Every structure is written in C-alpha cells, then in structure tokens.
Amino acid sequence: MRKLLVAGMILGTVQGAQAADLPILRGALSDTYGPRVVNWEGFYIGGQASYGTADMNFVNSNQSLTKGLLNNVDVEQEYKISQWPLLGKSSQSNSGFGGFVGYNTQWEDTILGVELNYVHGKFSGSSTGTQGRSFFYPTDYFTTASLTQSAAMQISDYGSARLRAGYAMGSFLPYMFGGVALGQADIQRETRADITYKYVGTQVPPLPDMGGSDVARSDLKSHFVFGYSAGLGIDMMLVQNLFLRAEWEYLRFTSPVDVSINTVRAGLGYKF
Predict the structure, then answer these.
(1) pLDDT at position 1, please?
(2) What's the whole-model pTM score?
C-alpha cells in the first residue's frame, strides 16, 4: 500500500510539471487572441468619394455692389436703399470625388497628425429679387426708387488643410479635425437701379421732372474663397497598411456669398 501511494505522488508531480509547461498557463491565449496592435504612424495617401449639400446665402451679397452704384444719390444717403434684403437662399446636393494625403504621429494610443484633403464637386445656386418704394423726398418731389438684383455662384473645387487628433482602438482609429478651407468659385452679381423724381410742388413755372437708371455688375471667374472646416471620421485598417475611411466634414466659406457645405465621404487609403 505504501509503495502504491509513493508511486501516485511521483506521477502527480510529473503531471504537474508537464502542466506548468502548457502554453495556456503561461498566457499564450492572451498573446494570441489579444487586441490587435496597429502602427498608424507615418505618411499616408488615399482617394475618396463624397456626397454633400451646399447652402448659399445671397441675402447681403449685392449690398456693397449696390452701395457703390448709388454713391452720392440722395435717396441712398437718406433711406439706405442699398440695404434692402432683395435676395434669398439656395441649396443644392451633389456628389464629388477627390483624394487626401497626410502624416500621423503616434504616442501609444494617441494619434496626432496633419492632412490635406481635396474634393472636386460642383455646387451651384442663384437668387433674384426686385423691390420699389416711393418717397416725398426731396422737398416738392415724389420720388420712386426701384432695385433689381441677381446673384449666382458655382463652386467646382474645395478642400481643407487640417490638424487631426484620434485615439487608436486596435484596427479602428476614430478622429476629429479642424482647419482652414479653400475653394474655387465663379460668382456673378448684378444690380439695376431706377430712380424717378416727379415735381409735385406749386412753383410756377414748375421744376422739371428728373430720373435715370444705371447698372453695376461683378463677374468673378475661378475666384478663391476662404473659410474653415471641422468634422469627425474613422479609419479602419483592413490589412497591413491598407485602411478604409468614413467621414463627415463641415466647411464654411466667407465671400460675397456665404456658403456652408456638409459632406459625407467614403475613402480608401494606404499608409507607408
């Protein structure tokens, strides 16, 4: 009986030693099946397709043009008719395509980078308006002023220079960004002013009636417009160095016409 007990103890010791050498007890499962570590640092380049909406605000776009046309005109000085809000807003949706290039730096899971982003997509809009008013001004005159305004804008290319900040979660890199925006646009504006002065006084002989009309135009071709951009996105590493991108970007341009563009994009990139 004692011999059998000793043999059992020896066998248990050997099996315990063998079990200690098993990979599962040394954490091999966590090494093999743990979170994937992705190196996002370095230069990258890619292409993208986009779909977006441009909102164009023409309300004050012709104000400076009209003010110059009516410089030194009495009803403009008295009633500020150049500030009449004759024009409205326009919205259009369209698709586009483009590319991006950038560089990431990585500190553990924190990603900081810079990027240039470009889209070729055509957005256009226009607005027209007419308004007339009558005044007993100047003294002894019944004055009628009429303004007709029109404006149109087309953006064909736009992009942004960004700073990016993200947090790496294995194969996924959610990020946010902000930067300056640059676009290329054609902008046409026109204002026509018609002013008549009819004498209604009692002077004899009566003073003469007066009046006239004039037009001011501005036609900007391939004009650069500037603004800012901001947005959110996520990059997903598919295989080594090849990643898929989904993104939303907001761009705002300040020019004779105020423009806001919202786009969603899908892209494919390669990190060197």
Answers:
(1) 42
(2) 0.81
